[in-house]
Amino acid sequence: MPPLSFLRDSPVPDPSPERLAALYAFTRAQATSNPDGYASNVAWWGQVLAAGLQEGTLGDADGSGSAASSRAGSAFKPDLASASSKGPRDTLVLTVDDGLLSRVTQDGRRPKGLGGVVESLASERSLMRLAAYNALTSGVEQGPGLARRALGAGLGLIGGLVWGKGAPAPEETCWKTAQGRWVHVGNVKVSSRPTYEAAATSFAAHLAANPPLHHSDCLFSRATFLETFATTAPEAPLTKRDVDVLLLYLQRDVGSVQIDGDVASPLGLGEGPITEADRGTLSVKSTLAAVEAQIEDIESQSAKTMDKVRSSLKAGQKAGAAAYLKSKKGLDDVLSKRIATGEQLRSVLRSIDDAKSNAEIMSAYELSTSSLASALADPRLSPDRIANTTDALADVLADSKEISDAIEIGGAQARQAAGAPEFDEDELAAELDVLVLEEKTAQKERAEREAREAVARKEAEGKAAAARKVAEEKQKVEEKEKKEREERERAARVAAAQQAIKSSEKVAEKTEGSKMTEEKERAERERLEKESQRLPAE
């Protein structure tokens, strides 16, 4: 069957029509009658919800939509318009409302058991109330205590003893309680599918591949963080609500980002905690971004105004052209001021980065100075110890040389006593020079011989090439003569055939003439016979 209409890439093998119908028809009551089947259905919907969020098809649109309370049991009014809102949808926050039911509708069917699915996923801590997630003081992996208490106020106990005697809560109650906003913990920290990356993992990979070069590059507001990293996390861009969830996870659970109010900075890129100076730097950076946006807008307006000037001149509207030109001059004046302001802000930002870099360099100098001083303080590097060590080394080397000399003298005396021949070093050197000269002469002769052989090969190749060329020319001449001869023979055959045809035509003409003469004579005889027969009768 075709894939689910609300997923671009189905996270699980497409179910059969019968299986899909069952997945849309089951309710919370199946948890008692068929626990294994219910768990399988919940697992399938868990994968579908995770993939739909990551693909940007199931979340609330661009932070808009229903203003659901994130506390269990609170009144909730779904906003069906959120299903058709424009803009990116949440990828880390699942908004459970009627809009979600509309988005997962397949072939006109709505799932009946989605409330129980949300309850089960919450009990597994795959989903966590947004308010409970924000209230955690420790990471989501630090134990179930606080998170379980927060969930227990809403969903954690509904499926069990609240309704007495272990009976599960009705699906209608589960659905009513499940409505609201939930953080999809798996989409934040762990890939739910091999082809997807969790937001935190992707953020770390992007930062490692694109490390900031300057101090100002390490400072982000929540808005600039969204602009910078929105397209680097899941398959769909992050929304403002996603960024709030991700930043909190990176700060509280991972410890890779420090946040102070609206200022965020990746740890390891900045130096120390966020300061007022950092806030000022971020303010300059934000102002520069705003000025650059204004410059682009003014340049666009100026270009459009100039087009109006040209259009007015073509239409002969000189007064209108003058008015538009005056407007353009005003825009150009504002543009020049904005450009000057932008350059001044860039200069300020460069000065801040330069000062920060200089401070880091001085810190490195101080650290290297203390490291070098600590190394030089090693007792082994004291002048007296160095002098004693080098003196001792010199004595040992002198003793070693005396031993080597004594061994050499003793060896010479032993060879002489054994009658070993003595060699004249000068004579050996002269003989070695002769051998070297002979080798050089042999190399020279070998090189000359190889050169002569190369010349001979080249000449032989030239002669062979000339012979091949002569043979080819001869072959061409013979082929040409053969072709001409064949043409002459063919022309002769054609002429003979034509002559034969003409001769046969003449014979045919003569034969035809003879036949006509005979017929005329026969006709004349018949006429004369008739005439002769008529004469006696008269």
Give the tally of β-strands.
6
Describe the sheet with the most strands.
3 strands, antiparallel
Sequence of strands across the biggest β-sheet? 1-3-2
Could you report the average pLDDT, rounded to the nearest whole number? 80
The secondary-structure class comes to mainly alpha
Which parts are unreliable, with pLDDT below 50 for 5 consecutive residues or more? 64-85, 143-165, 190-196
> Oligomeric status of the shown chains?
single chain
> What's the total helix number?
16
C-alpha Rg (nearest Å)? 52 Å
Helical percentage: 55-70%
Distance between the termini: 116 Å
Order of helices and strands: HHHEHHEHHHEHHEHHEEHHHH
Share of residues in strands: under 5%
What characteristic shape results from the CA principal axes? Answer: extended
Describe the 3D structure.
The protein is mainly alpha-helical and 538 residues long. Among the domains are: 17-195, no CATH class; 277-370. Helix content is 67%, strand content 4%. The chain has a three-stranded antiparallel β-sheet. A three-stranded antiparallel β-sheet has the order 4-6-5. Strand 5 and strand 6 (263-266) form a beta hairpin. Helix 13 packs antiparallel against helix 14. Residues 64-85, 143-165 and 190-196 have low confidence and may be disordered. Residues 60-87, 444-538 are annotated as: Disordered. Residues 444-462, 469-492, 503-538 have a biased composition (Basic and acidic residues). Residues 60-75 have a biased composition (Low complexity).
